[in-house]
Design brief:
Elements lengths: L3 H6 L47 H11 L1 H7 L4 H21 L6 H19 L6 H12 L5 H11 L11 H23 L4 H22 L1 H6 L7 H6 L4 H5 L5 H23 L8 H21 L6 E2 L2 E2 L3
Antiparallel strand pairs: 1-2
Helix pairs in contact: 2-3, 4-6, 4-7, 4-8, 5-6, 5-7, 7-8, 8-9, 9-13, 9-14, 13-14
Length: 320
Amino acid sequence: LMRVEGWLFLLLQTVVLVLLGGAVPSFAFHAPLSLMPRYSHTSTTTRPVMRCDAVSSGAITELMQEHDPILLFASKLLPSDTAVDASALYAWCRRLDEICDQPGADPLETQEKLVDWQYRFDQLWGGNPTDEMDAALVHCLQRNSIPRKPFCDMICGMQSDAVDGRRVATMEELEEYAYQVAGTVGLMLLPLLNAKNMKDAEYPAICLGKAIQLINILRDASPDAALGRIYLPQDLLQAQKVQNEDVLALKSSSGYRNVVESVSNRAWKLLEQAEEGRTTLPGLGPLFVQVIVELYRGYLDELERRGYDNLTVEGERVKS
């Protein structure tokens, strides 16, 4: 997340757009990146690596246009070399996300695909990419000292989605999930962006990713319900006497809206923390972060205007 480019790719969410938290940010429970193993730049220098010239930039552009149009717009601001590496990261995260978001997919089959994805990642980390897009990520890893842990944490987060009737027990669990599926993206991007101080930059990067994920969850409550998923914390729903059956049926209530407001407030706080840490980025990075923060605050403002009803608006289902 260090330059204009990195912050931008936190929009990824990949997927899935995925999540949120308690008073202590989930980042606090993870070891400093300086202690984590990083990609060995010598691991692929003695073996042939698949050329990634054939990777269609058009295909990646289509992915961004469909899933992250804001990201596509912002990517135009990136230096060409950084854009290539960031695009390789985006493609890896997006393809992982799509494994988990297939309507009607058998959870067991999804788990098997995720096991295969972990194997593919282990192979490309060792310099043996499976396809051209994996090869593009290998080249990115060769040029940047990116830690391995965020990739594995993201896969772990996706595995938690590969179940029937996905539920999240508490705010703490939701924030951990948000770190896994979105905060990790910022950590992947930091080495690309040359932050003034990597350690200081990690926390705001994670906050921005988690805020985006929480907002995506609020935005996508209706399509998630169609998949049988409820990401709002069960303990908060139960405290407000909200039944899961009503959420899945897109029935809004005052208790449900209270829970949405609580999650929205947490997302707002995370945006503030990301905003406060934007000066850890060089160049136009701080300005770029401010643009992202304001865009997502805009959704939270709109949600408040609607009375925190993210299921129905004047009798119509919310459009994502």
